[in-house]
Model the fold of this input.
Amino acid sequence: MQIIQELESVTEIQARAIKVLATRLAELGDTETGRDEIAEADKAYRKAVGGDDWAD
Done:
């Protein structure tokens, strides 16, 4: 049970890191391309994996 709890903790940390990185990439994408390609890719990914109910 402890291993599962530790894995859950690691997963939560990774999710926070990914969120921060995605935000920064979106900022760079808007600045560099003038388009929101990252948001479109995120939308497609969430649709593919059923992630529309994920908390931000």
Q: What stands out?
A: Residues 2-33 form the longest helix (32 residues). The chain has a mean pLDDT of 77. The helical segments are 2-33, 37-49. The CA atoms of residues 26 and 38 lie 6 Å apart.
